[in-house]
Amino acid sequence: MSRGLYCSNEAVSLVEYCSCDDRALYDCWFDPETKQGYNGWTPAASFEEFQQNNQQRHEDFVNGESEALLFAMIQCNATSEIVGAVSTAPGTPPEFEPDLSIRIFAPYRRQGYGTSAFALAAKYATETLGIAELHAGAYLDNIGSKKMLVRCGFVPLALCPAEKHYLTGEDVFQMDYIYKPMQTVHVPLGDRAYDVMIGSGLLSQCGALIRDALAPQKALIITDENVQNCGYVDSALQSLQAAGVKAECFTLRAGEEHKILASYEGILQACTAFGLTGSDILVALGGGVVGDLTGFAAASYRRGIAYVQIPTTLLAAVDSSVGGKTGLNLPTGKNLVGAFWQPSLVICDTETHATLPPAEYANGVAECIKYGVLWDESLFSALAQGSNVTTEQIARCVALKRDVVVGDERDTGARRLLNLGHTLGHAIEQASSYTIPHGAAVGIGMALMCKAFCPAIYDNVCAALHANHLPTHCDFSVTELFEALSRDKKRMGDDITIIVSLRIGQCELRTLSLSSFKALLEEKL
């Protein structure tokens, strides 16, 4: 019996079987150091004993008595060698054996097959076999295994009870990990590369994730009043302290109107009061305002320290937490002061989105729709249905932004496409004295730009925004908007670069004089 799961883009394949070559199995499971081979959890001192054990398992399977209802080998496509195994047991398992065991053999881990094999096996077990919970263990001093588990979608759960080390006989502790549908998007920027982790329940595990990635002695959490009231700060503090990281919190007043120099100065004063050094970190726990201010403080405190983004809003998760744009507002304009300073890690716990007010959640959806209009028609079509944004869709948005950031980190070329809807959106925010929030303003900006420059998709874009409870128009005149737009940071002399949609999934940059842009809007809107 061989159904098989072959993935041409992966380093490994899964193959189900009921019988196979015992010698091939034994050779793979044979440990030259202990002179033993293993069949499941059963040690075998010789090939003959191994063969007898394996034959008994096959007979049990045929007779319907086997705890190993399915046994799947993980193979390396490049060499056709077996590099690991997955086995499952039906119903309630015996105390000494779990429902599912996954083992990747050490030589293949060292060759780089371990992570892809483990990730594929975990996905297969949960999605195809329907196993509800998948647990894994890693010794506390085994950093490599812990990192592999996290990359494969596992999050730390708790310490396992002490058990005997299989070689030394000494008591050791393991960290228990549980598989969750986590997505990891890697941002490859050389020695400034970082991961964006997206999944459920990550906030309570942020301490271990931060410790393993950065190993700071101290972490200063920057948050705002709204996040403080949700209890997220307590979770983050407890997680960091449990991971051996000394942590404190500094709370800002909430709202775009507080993304100002005074708040920035307050963060810097808190850094000095806590005694942060160059090897310590800031943690931005909140939405875009918190993230932008924290990032700018990290870029400038001691001429630059590391910081971690933990976005608690959908808007920050898909936009401001990734890409390294940091800054603050001046009375004369939005984001006129700032720096490019990439985070060292981004941890997005999707459970925090459940506490967002509906209007704030919709703000994030507006940015997701923007990615669909820019580059992904299928993403746009899915979001236009008006249902909640999935973990996979968040990861898709982050990956789209990642791709353009890696190619244009300093925002001199293609990255400017990310400003779709933002030129008019920022003007709407300012004209409303920030009573119209960022996401809603961007949605209005997209709709107005489509109406003026690509009327063929105007109705579709408006329908998608309306399905997600977002506005598509405002009461400000073109003249009122241009008072704010004239101070836009994207302005270059008397010219401004705008983003124009050609169709859903394709946009382009156009540079116009301010006067021409104003005349076009007055004519079309």
Question: What does this protein look like?
Answer:
With 525 residues, this protein is α+β, with helices and mostly antiparallel strands. The chain is 40% helix and 25% strand. The strands form seven sheets. Strands 13-14-21-18-17-15-16 form a seven-stranded mixed beta sheet, sandwiched between helices. The longest helix is centred in the last third of the chain and has 18 residues, at 358-375. The radius of gyration is 27 Å and the shape is globular. The termini are far apart. Mean pLDDT is 82; it is low at 1-20, 35-42, 64-73 and 87-99.
Secondary structure layout plus pairing:
Blueprint: E1 5-6, E2 12-17, H1 22-29, E3 37-39, E4 42-44, H2 47-62, E5 70-76, E6 82-88, E7 100-104, H3 106-110, H4 114-128, E8 135-139, H5 143-151, E9 154-159, E10 163-164, E11 171-172, E12 174-179, E13 183-187, E14 194-199, H6 206-214, E15 218-224, H7 225-229, H8 232-242, E16 246-252, H9 261-274, E17 281-286, H10 288-300, E18 306-311, H11 314-320, E19 325-330, E20 333-340, E21 345-349, H12 358-375, H13 377-383, H14 391-407, H15 422-431, H16 438-453, H17 458-467, H18 478-485, E22 491-492, E23 495-503, E24 506-513, H19 514-524
Parallel strand pairs: 14-21, 15-16, 15-17, 17-18, 18-21
Antiparallel strand pairs: 1-2, 2-5, 3-4, 5-6, 6-7, 8-12, 9-12, 10-11, 13-14, 19-20, 22-23, 23-24
Helix pairs in contact: 6-8, 9-10, 11-12, 11-14, 12-13, 12-14, 12-16, 15-16, 15-18, 16-17, 16-19
